[in-house]
């Protein structure tokens, strides 16, 4: 096991499984085409598109989720999907013999030859890993595993998770990993709302507990990806995922810092980044913004930092980057206050509209969106805050309140409009008529009264 793995993780309490945990009677091992019968545990932003990609490859899929409401949303075509995936889902569910079976019964994974675990791994309010869903899902899969299955964990987590939550419990059940069941880690690579990086176009990495585990997991994943890169162990694959998203976090923090420096020096940071991006080697463009949200960047590096601290080590560059990311929404609020003050208007009582509240364009997802913190800070300061976003009807503010989308925002007068997320339906002609626009996306250079963070 990796030297980074803490000897004990007593600070993260054991969680009772949310699924029924009674183990089934052992079944005889089976041999079939890898991935031809697959169970996907967790049908969120990763699990559902993965299920649909498997169906498109010819597999029969058992889609398991503990939430009946989630399954109802999927059946009713309310799930947030790319257009192509939405078409796939409709076609699949309308078939006389659907290749995707939706269920809340975890025991049905016994019918599958391959099991993919795709559940969320957030952080709590102390920025420590919240392993509730992951522990429950892994415990349930272990309880219902049978000989002959390949089990692949895809959820981002600390280095050593696969051995802790799958390999050791399976061995305790008497199942020999690498001989009777095969276990690997293959981190998800799903970019919600981006059809240029569909799973069928995106390479995957996989690390198995044994070489045979790696081979079997790679064969199953090869159904939905053009390339499977094999690593030496689950730990190497787990660390690969942490590196991918920590790399993004550090570079976004750097882009935000350059944006502040460029404003102080009366330079356009977008022009500077575009100039640097002409270099064909040694540079990758990252864009500044109001902060980061979603399932990866605000959360994943904290899994690594938590583990590093357990070894009493330091990762100062990562820690500084994550502090900068966490502080970015407050920097936006400070800038709002500065601009209003410059116009002779206090924040108290000011009418502020937030345009776009999802964490990225094109997805109806507000998880960890900086807009929520910005709205909360403005409300606490006494501002009259509204929001508009074609993809979101209501948002929950950090203080537990509920804010509804403004239906008639073009008929109202606003002291300041903050463009937080550049949704496709944003009316730039209307923005041109506003007295002041804070462009937190850095994408609206043509507006006459535009300011940046």
UniProtKB/TrEMBL annotation:
Recorded family membership: Belongs to the UDP-glucose/GDP-mannose dehydrogenase family.
The protein's name in its UniProt record: Nucleotide sugar dehydrogenase
Keyword Cell division assigned: no
Pfam families: UDPG_MGDP_dh (PF00984), UDPG_MGDP_dh_C (PF03720), UDPG_MGDP_dh_N (PF03721)
Record-annotated UDP-glucose/GDP-mannose dehydrogenase C-terminal domain positions: 353-446
NCBIfam families referenced in this protein's UniProt entry, alphabetically: NDP-sugDHase
Listed GO biological process terms: polysaccharide biosynthetic process
